[in-house]
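=== RUN LOG ===
request id: a7f3
mode: sequence -> structure
chains: 1
length: 99
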Amino acid sequence: MHDRSADVVDKALFGLVFLNDKTHLPAIEATRNTLPADSPKRRQFDCAITALREGNPFIFSSGFNDMWNAWGLKDSPLKKVAEAAEDEARKAGRPGTCA
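=== RESULT ===
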């Protein structure tokens, strides 16, 4: 999570979010708190925190497709919940949720 590469950080957060292990929340929050308020990286951490708190990994990555069901989420209704929130935000003129 502390890597300079945004791609490495994204992959690390993705794994933590999709494992849905809330024990990592304090470390993610602590790292997020060191980032500037308007930083895109901080928004990425905010999205990971929201997804973990709500138990919905699709909030972090709404475009994710578990084609081989590796994460056990292939037909998850959570994807529809995240997509609906994204659509609602767009219709209201707000930035999308996270993805």
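=== NOTES ===
Residues 6-91 form one domain.
Residues 32 and 42 are 6 Å apart (CA to CA).
=== END ===
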